[in-house]
Write a structure and sequence with these properties.
By secondary structure, the chain is an alpha/beta fold. It is built from ten helices and 14 strands. The strands form two sheets. An eight-stranded mixed sheet has the order 6-14-13-8-9-10-11-7. The chain has a six-stranded mixed sheet with strand order 2-1-3-4-5-12, sandwiched between helices.
Length: about 350
């Protein structure tokens, strides 16, 4: 493969003036489909890779693990060209129906400026992951219009008994089920913060990665959107700084709603920081009257719901629950599936 770094020179032209791409839907997932596995960031140990792939097979899917997953280049699963090539292989291969990332970690940012987005747009497929994969979810959506999916990875199949809500919701969303998702305060420990209802396109992901996209060729637009954020292993002062950066960059000015995910494994501080996540959000939003809910399972906790990046949703928040309703299809069903559903 020719070195793709030559693309870098022109990528920052008109970053903030490029019109949004028309929405592009991937084909829906169905039992028996072949799911391709790639590692855009860190590599997964071979035994874990085999075990989790086997569990995905037991869910009723064929699984193809790209050879790139076994490549090791320091912490990365290969150098950046190898990792980008693997993603492109999966989109181009007609035998692959959907793509799920093995794990996140770090390294996806390196791929944003060397991926062949025209190839991806010509072969739209489900692309799913979270954490470090946030960079690719937002980058691919911006460059192609393809709806991408912030959801579980092969890594999430490590527990002996995989989380039922995680994988049930994943299958539902990717297969085209538009049943609204209702999470209650009593059952799911969410924290409704500001009640209300709003409609907008979903944008977001890992807070640290979102911060690193701002001002680049894969910056994201939040105007009129429902924004969601989550993170892990970040100190409270870092979370505060990232949220403030969103505010100062104008990313909170015109949002219609905010979903704050779980912030897990926050390291202890010698001197307590003092501010809670809710207080940080309050300070950043000021007197904005938009629906806000916190502690939503959309990140590094036991459960992770699947959120379609780029799709329009309706967010409803009341004192006892949150409801997330898809207002439009997020996948393209085959004609036979559509007739059967009708």
């Amino acid at each position: 493969m020719l070195c793709k770094m030559g693309k870098l020179k022109s990528l920052l032209k008109d970053v903030h003036t490029m019109p949004a791409k028309p929405l592009l839907l991937p084909p829906a997932l169905k039992k028996g489909d072949t799911i391709g596995i790639v590692s855009p960031g860190r590599w997964m140990p071979a035994d874990e890779l085999a075990m989790t792939a086997s569990r995905l097979q037991k869910m009723g899917y064929e699984v193809y693990v790209h050879p790139q997953n076994a490549t090791q280049h320091h912490q990365y699963a290969g150098n950046m060209e190898q990792r980008a090539d693997a993603i492109e292989d999966m989109f181009h291969d007609p035998e692959i129906d959907a793509i799920v990332c093995a794990k996140g970690g770090t390294g996806s940012l390196w791929l944003l400026d060397i991926l062949d987005y025209e190839l991806i747009a010509r072969h739209p497929k489900i692309f799913c992951g979270f954490s470090d994969i946030t960079a690719l979810l937002n980058g691919i959506h911006k460059k192609t219009g393809l709806v991408t999916f912030h959801g579980p990875m092969l890594h999430n199949l490590r527990p002996t008994k995989p989380d039922a809500l995680t994988w049930g919701h994943w299958e539902g969303v990717l297969s085209g089920d538009m049943t609204p998702l209702v999470l209650t305060k009593a059952e799911h420990a969410i924290s409704p913060y500001i009640s209300g209802t709003a409609t907008g396109r979903l944008v977001g992901g890992n807070l640290c990665l979102l911060s690193h996209l701002i001002g680049t060729a894969t910056d994201f637009n939040t105007d009129g959107c429902i924004l969601f954020i989550e993170d892990e292993c970040e100190a409270l002062y870092s979370i505060d700084r990232f949220i403030l950066h969103l505010k100062r960059a104008g990313k909170l000015d015109k949002i219609k709603g905010l979903i704050v995910g779980e912030f897990t494994d926050i390291p202890p501080a010698t001197i307590p920081y003092g501010f809670s996540i809710e207080e940080m959000v309050h300070d950043a939003l000021g007197d904005m009257d938009i629906p806000v809910v916190t502690n939503v399972p959309c990140g590094h906790g036991k459960t992770i719901i699947t959120l379609p990046v780029g799709a329009e949703v309706e967010l409803g928040v009341d004192p006892d629950a949150m409801t997330l309703r898809l207002t439009e299809p997020v996948v393209r069903k085959a004609l036979a599936q559509t007739r059967a559903a009708g």
